[in-house]
Write a structure and sequence with these properties.
The structure is a homodimer of 404-residue chains.
Chain A: H1 10-36, E1 47-48, E2 54-56, E3 59-60, H2 61-77, H3 82-98, E4 110-111, E5 117-119, H4 125-141, H5 144-162, E6 176-178, H6 180-196, H7 201-216, E7 217-218, E8 223-224, E9 227-229, H8 238-241, E10 242-243, H9 245-262, H10 265-282, E11 294-295, E12 309-310, H11 311-328, H12 331-347, E13 359-360, H13 380-403
Antiparallel strand pairs in A: 1-2, 3-4, 4-5, 6-9, 7-8, 10-11, 12-13
Helix pairs in contact in A: 1-13, 2-3, 2-4, 3-4, 4-5, 4-6, 5-6, 6-7, 6-9, 9-10, 9-11, 10-11, 11-12, 11-13
Amino acid sequence: MTNRSDIASPTGRSDLLQIYRDGLLGDTLPFWVKHSVDRECGGFMTAMDQDGAIVDTDKGVWQQTRFTWLLGELYNRVAQRSEWLDLAIHGIQFIEQHCFDPTDGRMWFQVTRQGQPIRKRRYSFSESFAAIAYGELALATDNAQYKQLAKELFQNFIDQNNRPTFPAKFTDTRQTRAIGFPMIGIATAQQLRDTIDLDAADDLIDGFIQTIRDYHFKPELRCVMETVGLHGEVIDHFDGRTLNPGHAIEGAWFIMKEGKRRADASLIKLGCQMLDWMWQRGWDEQHGGILYFVDLHGGPVQEYWHDMKFWWPQNETIIATLMAYQLTGDEKYARWHQQIHDWAYSHFPDQDNGEWFGYLHRDGSRSSTLKGNLWKGPFHLPRMQLECWQSLQESDLTTVSRDS
Amino acid sequence: MTNRSDIASPTGRSDLLQIYRDGLLGDTLPFWVKHSVDRECGGFMTAMDQDGAIVDTDKGVWQQTRFTWLLGELYNRVAQRSEWLDLAIHGIQFIEQHCFDPTDGRMWFQVTRQGQPIRKRRYSFSESFAAIAYGELALATDNAQYKQLAKELFQNFIDQNNRPTFPAKFTDTRQTRAIGFPMIGIATAQQLRDTIDLDAADDLIDGFIQTIRDYHFKPELRCVMETVGLHGEVIDHFDGRTLNPGHAIEGAWFIMKEGKRRADASLIKLGCQMLDWMWQRGWDEQHGGILYFVDLHGGPVQEYWHDMKFWWPQNETIIATLMAYQLTGDEKYARWHQQIHDWAYSHFPDQDNGEWFGYLHRDGSRSSTLKGNLWKGPFHLPRMQLECWQSLQESDLTTVSRDS
């Protein structure tokens, strides 16, 4: 077995399934369990160098909630291992005790090792990630309070986006809408439908997808816009022209996944169309990999790190290409999956210490030895490994039952 | 004449003087005058591609004030060309009409082409740059109102730093002080001493230098810290360990310049010591050039673009090494000047369109074709060319008078 991807053959699929499953259970998860669990102060420390040495004891709230979610998801979806549940409870306890601001009920973005607040942000992504973490714990422990909290946090995320209570960074001169809100809305509702049977999930998902279709999905430009005007108008300034292909591709697989569940061909088509456009825009023909930002018209981008290769856009593209191939059988997606899988697996894994590096230059050379920080933690890589493993397993079962 | 720097020989110095003077008057200044002056709506547009094509019509307030300062400085220091004065007045008119928030008197950070506000920032650097622009205009036109505004804006910059009125980005859990405030304080007071005879300038400068000495200058670490705790303590987290060598080196020449003016050997020594430490930390032994951020202990840095080569740290280091050589005669500084000058001039200038590119990868390859944006405009490069030209000219005159 090599790390090369060949999804079109049964052997290739079997190899890939092993790569994803064993990578998750034998590498990624043990790496974080070994290095990030703070037995002394609770929660997780994710700011670490390549060998797992903690380089900053501060705790990112995104990572507290995401690792807790991952552990709960593994417990509920893969195997009821008590170690995973215990660690998820270890995470949720730190979240409960230290990640909420009692003055307004909102969540912090960054706290100290002991849980003192450092920073809150305007956006409420902490709340959305906490919602799915509480959802997993509600399912795993049948705890009604967790279930209620999961619902409330999701509602807070929605309310805070619609009626921000935090001072705005920009004036009202040029109001915008960002794709992050409806995207994360879809993923959160999907999760809470699975874990706490969220009643409104289908309707909410319909609404979020409609928002993307109405405002961000641009057939005339063959593009999914990251940021648009309030009515979906293209804003011809740096911020409006800046595309985030890996992000749009993440949104694409959320929608494909919904199409698969509902057997809704129009949703699958929408997701594949989003992937098609953004692969064309994001894949780096010169060096390989998905670029971080590109300009709508191919011009210069203002963000300094625009052409770097971050780990997570590759993770999201690996999921999306695999899903698109499984849903459509289109050989193009098998080729793309092979391209992105092979490029990512030949550049990101840390051969010495396990897990992946996070930040490469455009040419694939390493920019940083960091294994984690406020933004990189046990989320995109293990979620990719889990999603791909599970969907390959399902398709194998389908193939087996079809053959038998 | 080549673009290679050899400051230790008379011919080398003469060549260098020409490079800086002709670069300023024959390349940098004409580039911005040709491409950035907005004859229709006033002010300057600096977001442009390599050929000067405007890629974003929004106007950065830093660039309005800095270009206005440069034009006034050239008028007052180099030659009383009416074109320069007219353009400086063109700039100040846009600033007066569109760059202040009438509700609180603070300045915006970014406005539209027509001058509608887009964004205000917590920090008041817009005010400090506006102060020196008004100072130049006050001197050039003998306008008492400009003089008064220059004083008030500098005071606003100081007050806003000491008692912020804008919501904080961080909680009070870990209060910090950044070197940017005392550094820009020194440079602003130096400018206003020259243009409006600011009474308090010497005392203010003494205070700002003392702040740097007391809190940021660390002999035991051989380092100038960018960010420290309120009492100068080293903060052992990403933000506290992150060093900005080009920034500290900019501060170093502000202090050397003060030492030169006052013939104060202790200030010259302080500036040279800051340069020595931060050259050692910032010079990239592998690829050349000054790195953007480095970690205090050589560990990983959290900012994604940490190892890129931006134009301005090179500009500031070219000034500082030249000044240190002229003030001390130490051959080490001549060597460093040659290293940084030669590396910068072989990587940054745009051979086709003039001026410099702004953003290179660590290895010196180009990351962006941008010639300007909200942060890059007619400031660091032309200021370097002006400072180095003028100081080489002064030293030539000194040499001539000594020889005669």
